Structure formats: C-alpha cells, structure tokens
Amino acid sequence: MLQLYIGNKNYSSWSMRAWVLLRQAGIPFDEQYVRFDSFDSQSEFKRTMATVSPTGTVPLLRDGDVTVWDSLAIAEYVAEQFPDKALWPKDKAARAAARSICAEMHGGFTALRGACPMNIEADLAEVGKIVWRDNAGVRKNVERLCSMWSHLLAQHGGPLLFDQFSVADAYFAPVCMRLKTYQLPVPGEIAAYVERVHQLPGVKAWIDGALAEKDFVPMDEPYRAER
Hints:
Number of helices: 10
Shape: globular
Radius of gyration: 17 Å
Number of strands: 4
CATH class of the largest domain: Mainly Alpha
CATH architecture of the largest domain: Up-down Bundle
Oligomer: single chain
Enzyme class: transferase
EC number: 2.5.1.18
Protein name: Glutathione S-transferase
Pfam families: GST_C_2, GST_N_2
Strand order of the largest sheet: 2-1-3-4
Keywords: Transferase
C-alpha cells in the first residue's frame, strides 16, 4: 500500500495537497505523520524525514521501492499509477491548463503564502484585514486567483475548476483554507467555489484532522504566543 508522509494537518499546505488528492480519489494509503517542531537540521522532524527523504521535507510518497517527493511530482505519479481515476482532465487543452495552473501555484503566489500561512484552526480575520490593507502583493495574488478561477468555472461549467474533481482542486485547496481563515475579500462566485472545496469529503476529512490535533507550533504562528 502507498505510504504518505505528512506534517501537521493544521499547518502543512504542501502535505494537504497530496493527502486530499489521494483521499478524495479513493486511493488507499497509510498516513505517516511527522510532527513539525522546527526545520533546523537537528530537529526531530528533520532527523525523522532524513531517514526516508533526500530533501527532508513533506509530503513524501513511498510505493514499494519507489520514493516520490514534492507535491507536484506526487500528483503526477499518482495520476500515472491510477489512470482510471482521471485525476487530470481528459481533454488535452484542459489538461494542459490544469498542469499550468498547478505549476503556477507551485512556484508563485509567494506574497499570499508568506503573509497568510495556512492555519485551519484559527480565525485570523483581523490579521487578514491588516494584510489586505498593507500588502499589495497579497491583493495582486488574490486578484490573479479570482481571475483564474472565474475563467475556469465559466469555461467548464463548475462545480469545480475542470467540472469534476482534479489535481487542480487538490492543489488549490490550501489556498481556499487561507481565504477562509483570513477572510480575504473575494467575489461571490469565488466564495462559493471556496465553500464547495471545503465540502469535498477529502477536504472535510483533512479539516477534521486539523481541528483534532490541538497542537501549537510557534514557528508556524508568528502572530500569537499561544493558542
């Protein structure tokens, strides 16, 4: 059976992508949880991950003697191994678009990711107001998200970015968490998409796990001293 190494569900956006993809697609896997403490080379997290990963990061997928690290590589590997799940759109042009927006997310949106780290448990609306007021990069990132999602929802008819669930929805699920946690302003159609993503069974299962952790990792919460 596949083994998926992940960090804290409350904080680990990279882990969420791979976990939600597998869970929502109904692909069995064993979850290997490695708690965040710090990313120092001598931390428990880094020492644990160093035994299985060449990069010492999560997520990491093991399939027998095959090891796949990086969330986008995991998505490609899983889609290749389970073609019946149609994790990428079947249409060539749609598939190219889906891969492009996932790559864009993978290497971009740095202002949003930096100013609004994922924290599913928290209500950070007040932090979000300050970020929205003062951070032009975040506003630009959200504008791009809204433009992208609006176009795809209109083109493919919804309810998800490419009609049916795909890698793209799993890939943007952590962004949906951020938009909700920080209450960043988005148009109604975008808020509705965010809510539909929240209601996906695989996403709900991840959220339930995040809320059950009851963990506080100070390095992931620079805006407060305790939960």
